[in-house]
# Entry
Amino acid sequence: MSSRPPLTPGGSPAGGTDADSDATAGVTALYQAHAVGLIRLAIVMLGDRGAAEDVVQDAFLGLYRHWDGLADRGNALTYVRSAVLNRCRNAMRQRGQRDRHDRQGPGPMASESAEAVALIGEEHQQVLTAIRALPNRQREALVLRFYLDLSEEETAHAMGVSRGTVKSATSRAVAALGRKLKEGS
# Structure
């Protein structure tokens, strides 16, 4: 449990100090600049907008709670991005444990409405389905490198792996994605 006071509806800490307002200002600025992109990342990883929003909110809450412990606040985005990926992994692991016997394979997720699926072009839906069918590490590498346009080094740092692992996972993901899309056409 954090010793930081709760936020008031206006976003400032109740009975806040300078450190609290610094954390609030820093996390708020980061949220405003990057939350949409991180939610998109989590949607691609999870296929569920509600779960994606929860994952991103939890990551920013964790950043707020640990703001004073950050050695370099310039790395706050890297921290949040890694937290989002870790929470996506946990959500996928929990989902797999809950419905392991009911798994029907990748495709439109149950939480997607018919309208949402219809609005996404058929080709786009095929690509998303193929991406979601990739193994976790390959999917993460592909999404971070090409969807978020991160460098190999940034991707490696976000995933907690070496640059060589990012290269091989990305290469395998692109090859597998090409095969899956050729099979579908």
About this structure: The chain has two domains: 14-103, 112-185.
